[in-house]
Design goal:
Blueprint: E1 2-7, H1 11-24, E2 29-34, H2 37-46, E3 51-55, H3 56-62, H4 66-69, H5 71-76, E4 79-83, H6 88-96, E5 101-104, H7 110-135, H8 145-162, E6 165-173, H9 176-202, E7 208-213, E8 216-224, H10 227-242, E9 245-247, E10 250-252, E11 256-263, H11 270-286, E12 292-293
Parallel strand pairs: 1-2, 1-3, 3-4, 4-5, 11-12
Antiparallel strand pairs: 6-8, 6-11, 7-8, 9-10
Length: 298
């Protein structure tokens, strides 16, 4: 079932659109009709829709700035504009701002309207999937390196303004190559997914947990007050990882090493902070693993 929010002031056109969608949609499209954009925005705050059909006159009346009001909606669902007349310039601008399609009322047919809605929904889903793949790790569903770095940059900018500290925890599983030889690819994937789940359980909702590559994970902690906060988190993470894992019905003993770094003490920029955390992780692993370290003092 495709749920469509129809925003149309003209009652006759609204009735016609509803009839068209019911006829050609073969019962697969459910339409909710409202007359005003303000009503549509209120509905969107409390209800989810798969697509919106928006009368172009509303854009003409309020200007393209009306699309700014719909940014949250545009991010999660496609919008198709119903235009009274052809205007290539406005149509191009609207599509550049995120509108999926523009249909002329004078030329619309039931098949065209339904096809436009279905194609818009499919395109939006494909777009969201590609966006997800660009930002999240497909195995663990954690943020990937690119998204983590982006959030770290923003966190550091905010911390600089507020004169706060930011912590980075870099985790690597000890002797992961040896575990890989024993568990095989499928077993390793199971181990990594369970590691991701345990890491998330150790963090607050506001913290970002990411998988960088292979067996390396990282966590972004905003609003910490001192290195002692980081040490508390590190103890919690190490205790969680040392609990036996169950992989393919067998218990597996795993340990991890952590590299800890704090802004601004250990670095001023995102890449610098990550490099310092990596150095600390390497030092922890070389010292025997199952421990955490801060970067060595210069």
């Amino acid at each position: 079932m495709i749920k469509v929010l129809l925003v149309e002031e003209d009652e006759a056109d609204a009735r016609r659109a509803c009839d068209m969608l019911a006829e050609a949609g073969e019962g697969e499209i459910q339409v909710t009709h409202v007359e005003k954009l303000s009503t549509a925005l209120r509905r969107l705050n409390r209800e989810s829709f798969d697509a919106m059909l928006l009368h172009g006159e509303l854009i003409d009346t309020h200007g393209l700035d009306v699309l700014d009001l719909l940014q949250a909606a545009l991010a999660r669902m496609p919008i198709v504009v119903l235009a009274d007349q052809k205007d290539v310039g406005k149509e191009r601008q609207a599509i550049q701002r995120g509108i999926q399609d523009v249909i002329l009322k004078k030329q619309w047919t039931a098949e065209q309207l339904v096809r436009s809605v279905r194609h818009a929904v499919d395109r939006k889903q494909a777009e969201q999937h590609l966006s997800y793949l660009a930002q999240y790790d497909p195995l663990t569903a954690l943020a990937n390196r690119a998204l983590f770095r982006d959030r770290l940059v923003h966190a550091l900018a905010s911390a600089k303004r507020k004169k706060q500290e930011v912590g980075v925890v870099l985790l690597g599983l000890d002797r992961f190559n040896v575990l890989g030889e024993t568990l095989g690819p499928d077993g390793c994937d199971m181990l990594l997914k369970e590691t991701a789940d345990r890491l998330k359980q150790c963090m607050r909702e506001v913290d970002t947990v990411a998988r960088l590559t292979g067996d390396e994970f990282t966590c972004l902690l905003e609003g910490i007050t001192c290195r002692a906060d980081m040490e508390t988190v590190a103890r919690r993470v190490l205790a969680s990882i040392t609990r036996p894992f169950t992989v393919k019905g067998q218990e597996v003993a795993v340990t991890a090493s952590l590299g800890l770094a704090v802004y601004p003490l250990d670095g001023q920029q995102a890449d610098e902070l990550l490099q310092q955390a990596q150095k600390a992780l390497t030092a922890a692993q070389e010292s025997g693993g199952s421990s955490s370290q801060f970067p060595a003092s210069p």
